[in-house]
Amino acid sequence: QVQLVESGGGLVQAGGSLRLSCAFSGRTFSNYAMGWFRQTAGMEREFVGSISQNGMTTYYSDSVKDRFDISRDNAKNTVYLEMSSLKPEDTAVYYCAATDNFLPVVAASNYNYWGQGTQVTVSS
Question: Residue 45's pLDDT is what?
Answer without folding.
Answer: 96
